[in-house]
Amino acid sequence: MFANSYHGRRVLITGHTGFKGSWLTAWLLKLGADVVGVSKDVPTQPSMFEELSLAGRIRHVQADIRDLAAMRELVLLEQPDFVFHLAAQAIVSASYADPAETISTNVVGTMNILEALRQLVKPCAAVLVTSDKCYDNVEWVWGYRETDKLGGKDVYSGSKGAAELVINSYLHSFFQDKHPVRLAVARAGNVIGGGDWAKDRIVVDCMRAWSEGGKVEIRSPQATRPWQHVLEPLSGYLTLGQALDQRSQLHGEAFNFGPRAEQNRSVVELLGDLGGRWGFDSSDQAYSVTADIPFHEAGLLKLNCDKALLELKWVPNLDYAETIRLTGDWYTAFYKEKADMYALTMDQISTYERAGIERDRAWSH
Ligand SMILES: NC(=O)c1ccc[n+]([C@@H]2O[C@H](COP(=O)([O-])OP(=O)(O)OC[C@H]3O[C@@H](n4cnc5c(N)ncnc54)[C@H](O)[C@@H]3O)[C@@H](O)[C@H]2O)c1
Fold first, then answer.
1. What is the reported pTM?
2. Is it the case that residue 344 has pLDDT exceeding 80?
3. The domain 2-196+227-261+301-323+340-364: what is its CATH number?
4. Is the CB–ligand 1 distance for residue 189 below 6 Å?
């Protein structure tokens, strides 16, 4: 996998206690990496991070990325070969409640990671995760390309656009010439998968409700989304890290990692399929429609992923049915079977890897 690029290498993950960070930590452990994680807290209760006992399997550091001195000290101490910067205030509704927290974390926090990386005098490949929401959403039907204008009308989106500008200015000001650190930006959209308990996410709301014997209320049943499994952008981030480590031409490049259009399904279809996996006989048991607010589809932002295909040979790996199966099975194992979630997660990563081998994905070699 990933040409063995991560085996025995030191990898620093920021935001390792979050949804994506926990999956990335698990995958890197499987790949034989020496993982260090830094986060300010464990953001949810329950959490995948705790259910997998990840703190005891890596070097777990509790610190705030807004603390520049702490970030400098950590990077100097750990001397990472790779950095995956995921730490963020990642919830759109929270950015309305506390815009200053979102901007300081997502913009100043990213700057602090760059400041910390500046000190390194050894090679390091750093993948900086922003979001598809960094683009100025002009509500057109085409996929956004990496060269499209950045923007963001809400504070979360704006903070991700602003983080990109900071990265770009640091790139041109400090990471030129012979600087040994290489940077790249990864942009992906919303993902689903087991182990998420963040606020305001439909799959999460659903699993919480079902585990308590209730059903979930939905307001825009016909809204369609490209439901993408969390391992998809992660295979993109890991591919980008590997490529950046090997190819200096990728220094400073940004990449989109999005789903295929065939992944698009309505909310009711998703909940019906997940409900089936949960063991419901009919969708009435899974959800009730409390309003039928027409969904403004043009608001959806699509990513054009041609660059990832061309430069990294990355394409999405799973189809919709596989995405549902992995997601539903994870929560079923957690809520109904009280399974060993570390073993189950590793098993799901193996399933993803096997699908990659069968489909001859570039990263599977
Ligand atoms: N989950 C998605 O659907 C999605 C979609 C697009 C982009 N992203 C981006 O991917 C990254 C990871 O998202 P996620 O869903 O795993 O988020 P999450 O909310 O589950 O986790 C956020 C992580 O960041 C850490 N963190 C937050 N503020 C911090 C601070 N000040 N200092 C140190 N650590 C801090 C938290 O402790 C946690 O580990 C984020 O940058 C997010 O914006 C996520």
1. 0.97
2. yes
3. 3.40.50.720
4. yes
